[in-house]
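User: tokens in, sequence out, please.
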């Protein structure tokens, strides 16, 4: 792999954690930089200011007359698309890495910061700076876990990179956007993916062990919009498991770290373009957020097959049911296990009656908001007033979850930029 064969940094150059790490840290990399104190301003899990950052990045915050922006954040447009010729090894069809490669080919960026697989574990993410568009093939596919990608920003600048593209999940993009101005790049392109239910790579291996008696041969896993998990194996075979038949009740209670259960940005609102699948009805789902995102998509326009977005079914019932289960889990009670005889039936029924397309995406975003409020209320109530942004409260409100005393800030929030200029809060708030 000819990744930055010249003097550019690699994952081996990433230093140790030096910040005041707390339970909610996902190790985005800022604590490993020259000034780990910037975590106080940059971290998504302290006092995020989404409206302030959205205004700076997109020129505006959400438009109340555009109903889907309340769910998915500011946008110019949404698309359902796929690469007409899907890329080998891609998580879906490879739109993410195709855009990144096109940016390199067009000379608009000198490097792309993305994740490849750890050489010893295909599921473990390892941050990497890529300069050869062909090498992006090795970043295709989803890894489960956290890796300190933003720790490579300073070394990239030191090596002379001035135009950079970053592929990242929402908690990484939040920190990147807060610090963007101080990083010294002339041009920064941000390709985001949605993210939910991440966990450590070690935990993820336990999940694979429950799914198959040959877990080492699983090469691909995805939670599809048709309510199935798809597994692929080294011998080329694949298997679909209905969500309702997953061994979720066998996972340890902290399988999903509290951070990912309380994450406040599912759809990567601060990216220039978000590339996911949830609203794509089996294709990919793109949220073009600003002019820069549109220009990036135009670079691969001829490679795309586009279909109309669809939206069917009703989300209210499934989200309310999810809330009831989450209340039990957040209160320490076991999730109600479905009787074995009912599982195949429910698994068969769900794709037929459940919400589809954009309605599925709205359901998932609402579920995430419900989960955030319930878990923070149970585990870290003192953090709520700073950590839960208005957009999360608005998504949770139809399900009877409104701020209780002390859970929502009433005074005006300092913008992310102001915080960064001021050096940010000096320490993590008490947990
Ligand atoms: C942990 C996780 C959870 C996700 N959950 C959802 C979801 O709930 N709904 C949804 O619509 N989409 C989700 N996605 C995004 C989705 O799985 C696809 O990555 C996305 O649709 C892009 O597909 P693609 O074929 O264009 O990507 P590809 O062209 O195959 O590229 C994949 C990109 O993902 C990046 N990547 C891989 N693993 C990680 C990681 N651990 N951390 C950061 N970046 C990584 C790589 O840098 C690469 O550039 C999630 C992604 C991750 C990493
Ligand atoms: S900004 Fe937050 S997630 Fe990133 S390293 Fe610092 S504490 Fe961890
Ligand atoms: S779910 Fe949220 S906190 Fe967890 S890795 Fe994804 S973006 Fe970060």
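Assistant: Sequence out:
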């Amino acid at each position: 792999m000819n990744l930055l064969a010249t003097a550019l940094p690699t994952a081996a150059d990433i230093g140790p954690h030096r910040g005041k790490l707390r339970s909610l840290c996902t190790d985005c990399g800022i604590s490993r930089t020259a000034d780990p104190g910037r975590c106080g301003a940059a971290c998504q899990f302290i006092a995020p200011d989404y409206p302030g950052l959205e205004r700076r990045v997109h020129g505006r915050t959400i438009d109340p007359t555009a109903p889907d922006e309340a769910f998915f954040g500011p946008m110019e447009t949404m698309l359902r698309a796929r690469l007409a010729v899907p890329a080998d090894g891609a998580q879906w069809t490879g739109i993410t890495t195709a855009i990144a490669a096109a940016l390199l080919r067009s000379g608009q960026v000198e490097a792309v910061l993305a994740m490849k697989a750890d050489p010893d574990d295909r599921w473990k993410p390892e941050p990497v700076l890529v300069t050869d568009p062909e090498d992006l093939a090795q970043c295709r596919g989803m890894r489960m876990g956290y890796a300190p990608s933003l720790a490579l920003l300073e070394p990239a600048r030191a090596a002379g990179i001035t135009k950079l593209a970053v592929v990242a999940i929402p908690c990484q993009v939040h920190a990147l956007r807060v610090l963007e101005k101080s990083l010294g790049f002339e041009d920064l392109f941000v390709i985001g993916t949605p993210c939910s239910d991440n966990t450590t790579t070690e935990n993820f291996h336990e999940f694979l062990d429950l799914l198959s008696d040959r877990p080492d041969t699983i090469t691909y896993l995805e939670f599809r919009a048709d309510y199935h998990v798809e597994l692929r194996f080294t011998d080329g075979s694949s298997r679909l498991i209905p969500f309702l038949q997953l061994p979720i009740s066998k996972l340890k209670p902290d399988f999903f770290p509290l951070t990912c259960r309380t994450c406040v940005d599912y759809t990567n609102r601060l990216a220039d373009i978000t590339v996911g699948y949830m609203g794509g009805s089996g294709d990919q789902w793109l949220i073009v957020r600003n002019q820069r995102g549109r220009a990036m998509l135009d670079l691969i326009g001829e490679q795309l097959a586009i279909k109309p977005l669809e939206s069917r079914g009703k989300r209210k019932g499934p989200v309310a049911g999810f809330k009831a289960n989450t209340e039990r889990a957040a209160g320490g009670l076991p999730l109600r296990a479905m009787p074995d005889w009912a599982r195949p039936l429910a698994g068969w029924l769900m794709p037929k009656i459940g919400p589809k397309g954009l309605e599925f995406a709205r359901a998932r975003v609402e579920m995430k908001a419900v989960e955030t409020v319930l878990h923070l209320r149970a585990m870290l109530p003192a953090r709520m007033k700073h950590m839960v942004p208005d957009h999360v409260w608005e998504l949770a409100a139809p399900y009877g979850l409104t701020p209780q005393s002390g859970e929502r800030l009433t005074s005006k929030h300092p913008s992310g930029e102001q915080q960064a200029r001021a050096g940010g809060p000096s320490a993590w708030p008490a947990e």
